[in-house]
Design brief:
- This protein has 127 residues and is mainly β.
- Helices cover 0% and strands 45% of the residues.
- The strands form two sheets. It has a seven-stranded antiparallel sheet, with no helix packed on it. A three-stranded antiparallel sheet has the order 3-2-10, with no helix packed on it.
- Strand 4 and strand 5 form a beta hairpin.
- The radius of gyration is 15 Å and the shape is globular.
Length: 127
């Protein structure tokens, strides 16, 4: 494994937690709902805001196009990306997924995350 692809384990210096979000999470693109779930996983990493990972089956993938873009996180693994075609350039690589996440974040497997500055991600208190 090259230095660039080094695998790291979350710990006190870089904590990561993945917990079920008790709220309903709704993702909208241009006012249209593309995801609606009560089964989101909230991933909190170091000092970053929590990211909502939504089960793939709760996402309408019809307007999504898989891209060649990939990134690597030493704590989570390799991420694959999708663009939302209706957003044009703003929708490029706006959705990501870890298809084979490392064990420490295994709960995000088969889940998708969205850049909240490019789409609307709302948390609604569960009824």
């Amino acid at each position: 494994m090259s230095q660039a692809m080094q695998k790291k384990i979350p710990g006190p210096d870089h904590p990561i937690t993945v917990e079920p979000n008790p709220s309903r999470v709704v993702v909208k693109v241009g006012g249209q709902v593309v995801a609606d779930t009560t089964r989101a996983q909230a991933l909190s990493e170091a000092g970053y805001p929590a990211v909502q990972y939504i089960p793939r089956e709760d996402v309408d993938l019809s307007g999504f196009a898989r891209t060649e873009h990939e990134t690597y996180c030493p704590y989570k693994g390799s991420a694959s990306y999708y663009s939302i075609t209706s957003l044009g350039a703003d929708g490029e690589n706006v959705v990501w997924t870890y298809e084979e996440p490392y064990d420490a974040v295994a709960d995000i497997k088969d889940h998708l995350a969205f850049y909240p500055n490019r789409v609307t991600v709302e948390e609604v208190a569960a009824d």
